[in-house]
Amino acid sequence: MKFTAVLAILQLMLITCHAFRTQSVAVRGKLMCGSQPAANVQVKLLDEDHGDPDDTLDNVFTKADGVFSVSGFASELTPIDPELRIYHDCNDHGKPCQREWIIRVPSKYIYSGSEPLEAMDLGTMNLEVELESENQECPEQ
């Protein structure tokens, strides 16, 4: 009887561990502010979680030429919901807080395992553009 109970518990643990699957994603691109490369712009790759804090998969700053590359992985029961967040001051008209762009990553760029097979290539984006969905809220002090 004890052996059967132990075996059942081990099977349940194995099934639970296997249910959490590792998923990975990567994004690359180049950011400009008008005709100038947007250097030192913060770019975050997040797994948006509904109901609990988002998971930061990667966090970088653009190089002097505006180029960035982010990648990361998470283990979840359900598919991850990756999004790219870009924080910048380009064309912000002197406002004290950074503009925040949120770009959702299509599911076709989510891969099984800890290494993505291909990065989503964002291309070159001009941060002067004002997105309808962008945020520019100052954190409370």
UniProtKB/TrEMBL annotation:
<dbReference type="GO" id="GO:0009986">
    <property type="term" value="C:cell surface"/>
</dbReference>
<dbReference type="Pfam" id="PF01060">
    <property type="entry name" value="TTR-52"/>
</dbReference>
<keyword id="KW-0732">Signal</keyword>
<dbReference type="InterPro" id="IPR038479">
    <property type="entry name" value="Transthyretin-like_sf"/>
</dbReference>
<feature type="signal peptide">
    <location>
        <begin position="1"/>
        <end position="19"/>
    </location>
</feature>
<dbReference type="InterPro" id="IPR001534">
    <property type="entry name" value="Transthyretin-like"/>
</dbReference>
<keyword id="KW-0964">Secreted</keyword>
<comment type="similarity">
    <text>Belongs to the nematode transthyretin-like family.</text>
</comment>
<dbReference type="GO" id="GO:0005576">
    <property type="term" value="C:extracellular region"/>
</dbReference>
<protein>
    <submittedName>
        <fullName>Transthyretin-like family protein</fullName>
    </submittedName>
</protein>
